[in-house]
Amino acid sequence: MGTTEPPLIVGRYAIYDKIASGAMATVHLGRLLGTAGFARTVAVKRLHPSLVRDPEFQATLIDEARLAARIHHPNVVQTLDIFAAEGELLLVMEYIRGESLARLLRAERAAKRHAPIPIVSAILVGVLSGLHAAHEATSEQGEPLGLVHRDVSPQNVLVGVDGLPRVIDFGVAKARGRLQTSEAGMIKGKLAYMAPEQLAAGTVTRVTDVYAASVVLWEALAGVRLFEGEKDGALLRRVITGVEDAPSTYAPDVPRELDALVMKGLSLDPSARFPSARDMAHALQRLVPPAFASEVGEWCAAAAKDALAARSELLAAVERSSQALELAPSDAGPVATRPPPPMPPMGGRGTVPPPARTATTPPPAHPVTVAPPHAAGLPVAEEARPDLRSRISRTLLSPPVALATAAGALVLFAWVIASLVRHQPAPAVAALPPPDASPLPTAPPPVPSETAQAAPPATGETPPAPSVTPPIKPRPGPRPRPQRPK
């Protein structure tokens, strides 16, 4: 598809030129066309036309989308959407401005030079970190997926001009819960990067990806292919017998410690390799400090200068074309919104008649049919506002307002009852008879005992004064209450 041809529109995606191709699908530049002028450049993976109707390949693409969506790591290309419409099944991914590691290493070999070792260290540390994130991925229920990529190769490593390497293509990954499973004895992946246990159709684990990453590291350091130009039979025998030559055989500047690290990852025995991709990344990072991301980005931009320049022109043409698609609906004029309904009069039913048209208000040239907001793609906030009465009734009938109204009524009723009880007149009380005017009887004076009378006072002593009891005053009686007139 050339840039001068119109794009293929599938749903909300516009599909443009092909930028990569594989055994079962092609990758195209695409644009996500949203509302309000929103657009985004994406990479769209499409099944080959001969495979679109094949349920097995459809399941493979769906599995790839589901598995990649469970991996959240900067060194793994993010899957944005999977879309099926009009006989197409699309896997939508983020677009990365960069180049595959396979093409970058090919450009270095064509220029008869080796990639700088710190650059290689930075790329492989990122790849191993992304693989470890994939190995640790879990399902929605938190259960381990047991994911194994099974196709780690330079073709599936994308190096961006931002300096980040990213792992792509989980189409043949092994995981629990896949819709499509491999038949017994079927081998998936590239033979030149398969581990011996994978070739023997044995148990595939995370150390299988460690072996494949070690093959990529070997080729990036040595500057040559590890299994180049051999037939499948000879290639299988060499993989099974093991790798004997270290990277320093072809690149003398590779240190011996780095040779040992690579050969450990290429061990025939899975238990002799690094137990995880993260362990190998840490060992490589300690042995060869990786280059900065800016240095990796500059190396990528220099090694793929021509390819990136051509792709930038293609991307600019795609964006111009998609801008025309985004502006096409606005050629018919601004989008009309539904006017609010007329307010009914407060005194009764009916509607307020529209104002008379004056000479300064020209009539419309043609009737305008206004679609509902949802059909026109407008947000819900653009819908017509309800009239005042319906808004008030909905507000008053809402549960919080009804509850508050009932509580207020109960409080008011209690206050009225309390006021009535407080202001009720007191019952009439009969007047009591006046108290007796005679004084209360007083107690007789105490009579001294015989013993006290017989005992004369001692000589020279002053006799005690007789005790005098003060008179007791009478208590006033209760005052009579005046009778209220009946």
Average pLDDT level: 77
Order of strands in the sheet with most strands: 1-2-3-4-6-5
What count of helical segments does DSSP give?
13
Largest sheet: 6 strands, antiparallel
The name of the CATH topology of the domain at 8-323 is: Transferase(Phosphotransferase), domain 1
The CATH homologous superfamily of the domain at 8-323 is termed Transferase(Phosphotransferase) domain 1
| Estimated share of beta-strand residues | 5-15%
Q: What string gives the helices and strands in order?
A: EEEEHEEEHHEEHHHHHHHHHH
> What's the CATH architecture name of the domain at 8-323?
Orthogonal Bundle
Tell me how many strands there are.
9
Gap between N and C termini, in Å? 113 Å
Indicate the topology.
Blueprint: E1 8-10, E2 13-21, E3 25-33, E4 39-47, H1 55-69, E5 79-85, E6 88-94, E7 98-100, H2 101-110, H3 117-135, E8 157-160, E9 165-167, H4 196-199, H5 206-222, H6 232-241, H7 256-265, H8 277-287, H9 293-303, H10 305-327, H11 388-396, H12 399-422, H13 450-454
Antiparallel strand pairs: 1-2, 2-3, 3-4, 4-6, 5-6, 7-8, 8-9
